[in-house]
Fold each of these.
Amino acid sequence: MTTNDTPVHQLYLVTDEPACLGRDFYWVVEEAVQGGVTMVQLREKHLSTRAFIDRAKRLKDILLPYNVPLIINDRVDVALAANADGVHVGQSDMHFDMLNEMLPEGKIIGLSAESEEDVVEAENFDISYLAVSPLFDTPTKTDIKKPWEIAGLQWVRKNSTHTLAAIGGINANNIRQAATNGAEIIAIVSAICSAPSPYEAAFRLKSAMHD
Ligand code: TZP
Ligand code: MG
């Protein structure tokens, strides 16, 4: 069993160290949390397993006092080792059924959907959220399929019973569009990680989401 009690309109920071532009990684994340981020995903594609676990543990300690859950991208072993709050997988990562068996009860499981077939299949899975990916075109991740755009998000909202997250190309100018067309979780990399002030950026995004 997974949790499916995510409150509406969460601001979800997905980390990317290069996007932090040389600034201290932990400083960027903590600033963003103080500015209004409510969930954090540690997404590391190039760290060794040991370094990934060390980073996850340190981040977990930072996030604990804020009561902000830490989700690990791709790696169930890293999530278990660091006692993280959940795992996010894509369509070519570990299958939901296996992940669900390996994770203790109550952990968050997020899954990315890149096509209408993915959305339909995900109805069979007891996931915590389904990520509509990418919502808009983005330079941050280039190995992606065609963006869903707002019409696609509306289609997913009509055809999925899951809590929806939206990721890709979201900034202060378009976040409200995502939030009012079915996404309860808004996931962001560069508009927070690369902002001059991650605190201000998160604060502005949170306000723009509800205005
Ligand atoms: N998955 C789909 S798009 C994306 C990921 C990790 C990157 C989103 O980055 P940004 O900078 O918020 O567009
Ligand atoms: Mg993945």
Amino acid sequence: SNGYELWLNYDKISDDTVLKTYRNQLQSVFMEEGGATMEAIMMELEMGLGGLLDREIRFDSLPSSGNQLVVSKYGSLPKDFKEDINIDYLNSEGYIIKHIKKSGRGYLVITGKEDIGLLYGTFHLLRILKMHQTLEGLNLEESPKVDIRMLNHWDNLDRTIERGYSGFSIWNWQTLPDYIDQRYIDYARANASIGINATALTNVNANALILTPQYLEKVQALAEVFRPYGLKVYLTARFSAPMEIGGLETADPLDQEVIQWWKNKAAEIYKSIPDFGGFLVKANSEGQPGPQNYGRTHLDGTNMLADALTPYKGNVIWRAFVYSEHDAEDRAKQAYSEFVPDDGKYRDNVLIQVKNGPIDFQPREPFHPMFGAMPNTPLMMEFQITKEYLGFATHLVYLPKLFEEVLQSDTYQKGKGSTVAKMVDGSLNTKKLTGMAGVSNIGTDTNWTGHPFGQADWYGFGRLAWDPSMNSEAIADEWLRTTFSNDEEFIKSVKKMMLESREAVVNYMNPLGLHHIFDTSHHYGPGPWVGNLSRPEWNPVYYHKADEDGIGFDRTKTGSNALSQYAPAFEEKFGNLETCPEEYLLWFHHLPWDYQLKSGRTLWDGLGIKYQQGVDQVKQMINTWENMKPYVDEYRHNQVRMLLGIQLKEAKWWRDACMLYFQTFSKMDFPKEMESPENTLEYYKSLKFPYAPGIRPQWD
Ligand code: BDP
């Protein structure tokens, strides 16, 4: 398989007993009549059920002569079906799948309040079939726990993708709106199948042209393809657009003409896209324009845009990824200082989108201190699905494991058990609006994500956005079964490999709490020695602070005191060397090279041992994959095999470059567990990658 079908491959069910049972249980299909979403369901059933059962689907009236699949909104079900089903606890996107027996016949009923619930339920049923699970006695109830479940595409209008490693943008702006690529439809299907209901089409480093009539017409065409699948379109709004495309002299959010310009723009957009989601905004961050250019605040800018969208029920998603050059003592502290004081002052249709950690999508970060610190403002989680800092699309790193770790972290804001997940789904603060965004890893590569296992990150993000309390192991199980095979031997080995892959990348890149020691600009490979960039916080040396006395960033009271932004119980635990988990040691503490770790070894030895462990884990992954040959098609087996080879090379590169560099300070021998470096420090420093993929133009 070339992987294009993702987890939605509908080949005939291979197990004969299972196939026979399903064929008997699903002899015909009754579908309520309806609009575009019902048509999408019908198409999916023809393809999906038709493919899996390897026969033409018979659509029939209700009741029919045999066992039947029933797809209908609750309101349209016959009375005796209604009596068996309680939809009181479903929300408008939720569904119930229930197996009901009536006069000797079995009915598998998919129902909900709205059509979109039926679509989600249909995809769930197809998943069940692909996983060979039993339908007998099935009684499932599902409602998404998060309102806005969104992909953020960092796609530029020239089709390059910032931090994209799987080809070019799938949005072909040149041929839109007239040419509808099949990929747009398959994109919508894939997203709906995991419950994603929103997409921001354009880069947060925005181009104002997307808001001109010429482009809005193209956006409208996409919105029309996506609508039946419940997928709402958002656009990134460049704050200076009123000047760039509107001919105004200013973009000051308190200026009457500017206010009116945005109101008119909103009216124009909603005229052609009545369900437009709203704006995603990056302002006063990394050179992007924003309200601070006019002496105004984030709050001023946000509320001005929010007011323009209010008449149409649109949202403003304003990003908290800000750090200014004027306060460079600790970048980790800045977003909190700029946003938390305004808690509760944002309009009702505003969400503040916060990256999972306080720095920038590192292999491991503690959760962002804003989670839990703004009880009166909807905070939206931002994860990065594309692997900017985790080996691009060439490394196998199963990200849902990372997402889960963040979501299950305890903020202690409302006592023990106040997890980030509960902040995000609103249950701890009864938030009115909730959301989760993932920076997409999708491109024009045949299999969408470059690495075949990159599909699992898209899949897992969607599942966690639907239910942030899900565990990553269950998600890996689903994905493997629907993407590759139900063979237990395969599932067991590959699931284990996926679950361990996240710790492997932490070990060979950023062990013991190290972070942001990537080569600058492109972030490909190690660059811990870089220290010559104009702004201090752009330099890796700023983050590891290695010198002859030791290594690490002191964020306790004796240092930047970033820990004080967390709840007291958290601060106490992570600020105390006795209780701080070693995975976060150098994130919060600066320690001498001979500091004794829990293992009894020195910090220096511990670092080398971790780097080596990361390399060994990749070797283990290679072994595991070799043994999986019987279960995987040759094409994908070969792809993953070659990619793991690159991953091993690069894991060693990281180990050798970092340890050789840090040795210039520690002046200690490598621990005996560590293999000798393959090259010199000078060699690693000399490597340059001017054409590494995903680079952001004209930036650092
Ligand atoms: C950083 C990326 C940069 C993005 C920025 C952001 O290096 O390309 O523009 O985040 O999230 O991780 O705005």
